[in-house]
What we know:
The chain is mainly β and 404 residues long. Helix content is 5%, strand content 38%. Strands 4, 5, 6, 7 and 8 form a 5-stranded antiparallel β-sheet that branches. Strands 3-29-28-27 form a 4-stranded antiparallel β-sheet, with no helix packed on it.
Amino acid sequence: MSRNGVRSSVYNATMMFKAGILKHLLMMPLTKLGLVVLLASVISACSSTEAISLQLVTEGLEQPVAVTHNGIDERMFVVEQRGRIRIVEAGQLLQTPFLDVSSIISTGGERGLLSLAFHPNYDANGRFFVNYTDRAGNTVIAEYRVSDDANVANPDSARALLTFEQPFSNHNGGQLAFGPDGYLYIGTGDGGAADDPLNAGQDLTTLLGKLLRIDVDTDDGAAYRVPADNPFVNTKDVRPEIWAYGLRNPWRFSFDTATGDLFMADVGQNAFEEVNFQPASSTGGENYGWRISEGAHCFNPSEGCDTNGQTLPILEYSHRSGAGRSITGGYRYRGREVASLDGAYVFGDFVSGNMWAARFDGSAWASTYLMDSSLAIATFGQDAAGELYVADYNAGRLYKFIEE
Length: 404
């Protein structure tokens, strides 16, 4: 299939999965233009200066949406949206799923099995956590345990930790990740539809449109507890699980394994895609702006909005630039095999297939263009050694970044 054919399939089948902006995709062609204006940065869409390519690891996946590792060996775990977690071992896709929850989830559009996070002490306790939409379409954060077979989870070990209603079928967020503090972080979308009709991003009484932070290591049998130093733990009529707010549909966040800093991509409404940043020293409580602003620009109201107290994105790109229309967050590279990416934050766009590498120059983040991958970039991933991967949602393939 031609490159345009691949992107047409994104139009016709998969775009509702992430951004809920199909109507906007038909407004202009996906072309690379000269410069993409960024907040405190520039993304160059000229030829890449990086000698980097993608090496096929495996194929045969079905709508992969998350890639991770267990922290103890070289196996990669790939989450398929329709409900399975697959294992890739030594470049081979194992036929038996690690876990299959397809019978208890809802799929279609942006719903499904969305993420996986292994407990930091997985080697000792065998615990891992998943984020999915149940048969009613609501978000469930559940805990499972591995069986006596290291390649198969115990389906009977399921325990729901947190469930909350999704008013619409899109903008579920879905990312799970353990921070360097040992707490579980959960990214949630604003509940869906368009323009955040519930104003969930700014509403501190709801878990929608937020980054949550919970402690899953309780000694009293409780599903979880709220860390005592969460920013709103003692605030009346505010959900104490909230760590940060003002998000539309955070699609993939990650912690820098060297510094503990947090990078979080947020899919825009119809004009801007953004990358948000939270330093490891943060005590939480950041307001990333939605729906008051989209990126660094007024959204509601469209002019003269009050951005006082907001944390602006470190990077953004415009839909009009041709760079893309649905951002996918990645990782700050800390591996050893691709020296030219050392310290760079790598991210891409689901629609255009473009990828960039962002670096901090001491005062601002600046991005350089890596490649037009022609992939439907649903997710990036890291292995235990810090090497970087990317998954193609449409073709069901997993690739590894290599240096030419």
